[in-house]
Amino acid sequence: MFVMDTSINQLKDKIAAYNQVLENTVVYRKVWIDTVKQLISSTLQSFLNDSGLKGKIVENKEMENLESIILDLGRSSSGIAQSRGTDDIKNFMIKNNGSMIYQQLFNGKIMVMVHSPHIEGYGEQKEPQFLEIVTPGELSPSLVYQHIESLLDIITEWEDFDDDSPQKKTIFQPIGFQHTVNPNKSE
């Protein structure tokens, strides 16, 4: 009988934890509507105004309780054009300049992601890069600015792509036994 009582108590604890999670979802969704949407939008808009970076804030309200706020850096000419035969007509490729997304999840938490820039018709677009998931209570203007910093790092790295990164340089080092010279070693 004691084993059964212990099991029942453990299950009751799990049920209480489950009910708390359900209650959190209701609270998080309400906080999104009451304060968080405005906090995200106004912080991002303030950043755009102060920085001079071109972009716009887009609210996606298609799905209730799955809304998103996007910092969209727009589209521009990539400077790359495909010639069409011998005539002077060219198809210019468009570059999507990247974006950052605050996506409300099914449980009311907020997932933050970054889309790297990409050129339409040139290679595959990368999957969005996950930054983090936060509760509405954790979100603050300073955290939004940290996300913006990550966005700027990601888009700058994409724009400045080359093989000079330390990870890639090691590829070209010789492979084999004793290829490094040790000046302290006496022969």
Task: Describe the 3D structure.
With 187 residues, this protein is of the alpha+beta class. The chain has helices at residues 2-51, 141-159, 166-169; strands at residues 56-60, 68-72, 75-83, 90-96, 99-104, 110-115, 118-119, 129-134. The protein has a five-stranded antiparallel beta sheet, with helices on one face. Strands 3-4-7 form a three-stranded antiparallel beta sheet, with no helix packed on it. Helix 1 crosses helix 2 (141-159). The longest helix is centred in the N-terminal third of the chain and has 50 residues, at 2-51. It starts with a helix and ends in an 18-residue tail after the last helix.
User: Could you tell me the radius of gyration in angstroms?
Assistant: 25 Å
- Largest sheet, if any? 5 strands, antiparallel
List unreliable stretches of 5+ residues: 168-176
Q: Give me the number of helical elements.
A: 3
Helical/strand content category: alpha+beta
**What overall form do the CA principal axes indicate?**
elongated
SSE run: HEEEEEEEEHH
Mean pLDDT: 84
Q: Assess the beta-strand content as a share of residues.
A: 15-25%
Which bin fits the share of residues in helices? Answer: 25-40%
Query: Order of strands side by side in the largest beta sheet?
Result: 1-2-5-6-8
Topology:
Blueprint: H1 2-51, E1 56-60, E2 68-72, E3 75-83, E4 90-96, E5 99-104, E6 110-115, E7 118-119, E8 129-134, H2 141-159, H3 166-169
Antiparallel strand pairs: 1-2, 2-5, 3-4, 4-7, 5-6, 6-8
Helix pairs in contact: 1-2
